[in-house]
């Protein structure tokens, strides 16, 4: 078989595979968005998104990617002439620091950067100390699951800290929302963001911002000029209240997201989360059985990463998986805190990926690792994966 004839399996931690029902919905004729028909679909989607986000607040659907949505929350919710605490132990946490670096001169923001080791959870004590010492912090940013390091942080604990202060907690839930436990209202998350191409089972193109009461109040009270037009969340909130969006939406994606949310919620969000967790746990056990080392001390349930063993070349390994097996996984990323490009690889457990996809991935990884001279008994990973999954 040639590579193009292989069944393609996407196990990258974004974009992720899209179910056939969603693809069929995306193919429907385009309707105009300033219509009752669109508004009805949008209203249904908004209600479903609230269930996935576990919030009673509005969840805005913004054309763009996860970065668009998070940047919008960052620029609109920060107070001018204040401080922000930005936590980073991976590429995405670092990105939110970069965004505030850009806006700091427009809004006179001072950044308190809490950088911690890649592969470790955010240091809650250090965040508490920074909050205690700086009463003028207006925003805290944190990645719930930093996909670059396959690591989860204790957002529940950090939200409890933020709730005692005037600081709003902005959570990058791009690979936690819909994948593992993330209780926006119960925990007290002020703004929660995700993107369509991760656990939401949609192609790339939409970013979502859930807003809690304190965040809505902050938006209401804005009196300064904000350096944003399209990303001015006040416009999006006002339109959302009328089941509408301020600018032309990606109509097909809105429809598709409604169907994807129905699938996510079909057996309840808890069931979806439990399945993702099973895949993650079984994958970690399988990698360890194969003699590979996990990259995280605090593993995320949506993505698993391991270091390459000595002698295995990243490009060759992933090309082998792709060309010989139709399996797509991710390599590493490099940032300020670590240079993991070429050093690690990652597989996703979120969204539309199941036991059989992951089992096939382990079988293929064993073949390609052996092809590069790594001493591995064929079947070790597959057996461990299957045993842990069924345990
Ligand atoms: C994918 C991802 C992003 C970036 O999202 P884009 O949609 O590429 O802008 C941000 N944060 C995390 C944790 C991600 O996994």
Automatic annotation (TrEMBL):
<keyword id="KW-0560">Oxidoreductase</keyword>
<dbReference type="GO" id="GO:0004760">
    <property type="term" value="F:L-serine-pyruvate transaminase activity"/>
</dbReference>
<feature type="domain" description="Aminotransferase class V">
    <location>
        <begin position="30"/>
        <end position="334"/>
    </location>
</feature>
<feature type="modified residue" description="N6-(pyridoxal phosphate)lysine">
    <location>
        <position position="198"/>
    </location>
</feature>
<comment type="similarity">
    <text>Belongs to the class-V pyridoxal-phosphate-dependent aminotransferase family.</text>
</comment>
<dbReference type="InterPro" id="IPR015424">
    <property type="entry name" value="PyrdxlP-dep_Trfase"/>
</dbReference>
<dbReference type="InterPro" id="IPR015421">
    <property type="entry name" value="PyrdxlP-dep_Trfase_major"/>
</dbReference>
<dbReference type="InterPro" id="IPR020578">
    <property type="entry name" value="Aminotrans_V_PyrdxlP_BS"/>
</dbReference>
<dbReference type="InterPro" id="IPR015422">
    <property type="entry name" value="PyrdxlP-dep_Trfase_small"/>
</dbReference>
<dbReference type="InterPro" id="IPR000192">
    <property type="entry name" value="Aminotrans_V_dom"/>
</dbReference>
<dbReference type="GO" id="GO:0019265">
    <property type="term" value="P:glycine biosynthetic process, by transamination of glyoxylate"/>
</dbReference>
<dbReference type="Pfam" id="PF00266">
    <property type="entry name" value="Aminotran_5"/>
</dbReference>
<dbReference type="InterPro" id="IPR024169">
    <property type="entry name" value="SP_NH2Trfase/AEP_transaminase"/>
</dbReference>
<dbReference type="GO" id="GO:0008453">
    <property type="term" value="F:alanine-glyoxylate transaminase activity"/>
</dbReference>
<dbReference type="GO" id="GO:0016491">
    <property type="term" value="F:oxidoreductase activity"/>
</dbReference>
<keyword id="KW-0663">Pyridoxal phosphate</keyword>
<protein>
    <submittedName>
        <fullName>Soluble hydrogenase 42 kDa subunit</fullName>
        <ecNumber>1.12.-.-</ecNumber>
    </submittedName>
</protein>
<feature type="binding site">
    <location>
        <position position="346"/>
    </location>
    <ligand>
        <name>substrate</name>
    </ligand>
</feature>
